[in-house]
Amino acid sequence: MNVAIIAAAGKGTRMAGARPKQFLEVAGTPIIFHTLKPFEQCDRIQQIIAVLPAEEAAEFTSLAQQAGLHKLAQVVAGGETRAESVARGLKAIGANKVEIVAIHDGVRPFVTPEEISSTVEAAKITGAAILVAPLTDTIKEIQGKNIVRTLSRANLRSALTPQCFRYDLLQKAYLRADLKDPGITDDSILVERTGASVTAVEGSSQNIKITTPQDLAMAEILLQA
């Protein structure tokens, strides 16, 4: 069995709204439901665990069922950091026989079922794989206000989600992690620290993370398109 953990426990302070950003509506539907839909449609994923703010968790399962999201098995209250929230999602898996765990940001609604499948399949072969996208901007390294050098884009990628790992490998990585560290912004870095290799799977730059009002406006345009 392959399980998706949707990390959606953030408060969304950069959006400056009354509700967490994952519950803001795009095209009349909360972002979190747009995010869950491709995992519901992906035949490589058998079960979904959503990690949400504690105050939102109680009623979410019934809302998801009404939205046709039948793979949602559990809703877990998140922690203070992303790492702590994902760790709680991992703990919720329990003793189930799981091969691959796919971790995805709750505010990335434009991932496709095909991208999810490709990343899961790569992780089955290598043990760890993440979705990435090419950089389009020229990247400068700076010290203070001075440019030190220009980095070649050829070997650089933006890290996206889902990030997929063999269950035992991810468990090992999280046992070593400082779950209170706010600097752990993705799961791949923890797996990399174990010495394991992580495969890059090319994805689309449209798989944006909605963090600002500008991102929300872009999401509306992408959905209309």
Describe the structure.
The chain has 225 residues and is of the alpha/beta class. Helices cover 33% and strands 27% of the residues. The model has no long low-confidence stretch (mean pLDDT 91).
Nutshell version of this structure?
This protein has 225 residues and is an alpha/beta fold. Helices cover 33% and strands 27% of the residues.
The end-to-end distance, rounded to whole angstroms, is 34 Å
Question: How would you describe the oligomerization state of the chains in this entry?
Answer: single chain
Largest sheet: 7 strands, mixed
The number of helical elements comes to: 8
Mean pLDDT: 91
CATH structural fold name: Spore Coat Polysaccharide Biosynthesis Protein SpsA, Chain A
Keywords:
225 residues, alpha/beta, Spore Coat Polysaccharide Biosynthesis Protein SpsA, Chain A, seven-stranded mixed β-sheet, 11 strands, 27% strand
